[in-house]
Fold this protein.
Amino acid sequence: MVSPPEFQHDPVMVAEIAEIAADLSPGTFADLTLGGAGHGVAVLDANPELELFGVDQDDLALAAAGERLERFGPRATLVKTRFDGAGTALVDAGHEVISGFLMDLGVSSPQLDIADRGFSYHNDGPLDMRMDTGQQRTAADVVNNYSFGELVDVLSAYGDERHCKRIAQAIIDGRPFTSTTQLATAIADSLPAPVRRKSTGHPAKRSFQAIRIEVNDELAILGGTLDTMIDMLDTGGVGMVLTYHSGEDRIVKDRMRRVIEAGVPAGMAPTSDYRWSWRGARTPSDSEVEENPRARSARLRAITRVGASGPGLGAP
Ligand SMILES: C[S@@+](CC[C@H](N)C(=O)[O-])C[C@H]1O[C@@H](n2cnc3c(N)ncnc32)[C@H](O)[C@@H]1O
């Protein structure tokens, strides 16, 4: 077991997120992917009138966040749940409306770096990849039991992997798999040498991402959670989502657009309660990407609740 002080995760676009938090009305800010509370601490520091309601499904993250948020006393509440349980947890705790929310999707650096968690294609570990270690399904279940067709679907939908059929066949042929590097090697070996040479990062990176998303049901619960949180926003409230790959970003963009354009006939000014906080997605600065390569693919989208007659900005 790794102790919380070793939990090192650089929060992405933290200055931009803190700037938005600074302007929010007094009330509750829900961080649905609390991690090590890098964003959570920045939000509370930026706006003394906000309280943080932090949610994560990972015990290690919650332990680290608890230590970092201790200095804020009762301004921070931590809850262990998958984020589709956040709406109920907020209401149960008396927070029916919120001033803002953040979802910073995916995994934290410690989850990737600790070999035993089984997320890493570099450090050998068991094929696990569960964010909530109490959950049943592991990466070994997906890798060793899914049919060829199911593997192809996972690899292509959640990893945008062009070579999904080749990789799925290599997985079927190489079974049973027990460790992450055994799987990473089989995936890399299944690709033609020129593809391996040209791939940015490890050739198994996309496949590992796809399997991780499947194990944790990450995309299945994203849209519904977003709808619930958007609905709970107070007037003036802002909901922000940081995504790291196209599948996530598409869901976020579509859901927000649907709310913003609700009931708006083509060509008419939107009459929805919501508008885009800015057009399109914001991305990290070059200097942030240089310092934190994990930020490279980040996209930040946000929605603002403007009230019953507020104008919308239209599609990004
Ligand atoms: C990218 S990290 C967040 C890092 C955090 N913003 C910070 O500043 O340290 C994502 C976190 O969200 C958690 N997470 C991912 N999907 C989740 C879900 N469906 N429900 C609850 N927590 C989730 C992960 O366990 C991880 O700790």
In short: DSSP finds 14 helices and seven strands in the chain. Residues 9, 11, 33, 35-39, 55-58, 61, 82-83, 104, 106-108, 131, 218, 221 surround S-adenosylmethionine (CB under 6 Å). Residues 246-260 form the longest helix (15 residues). The beta strands are 27-31, 50-56, 76-80, 98-104, 233-243, 274-276, 299-305.
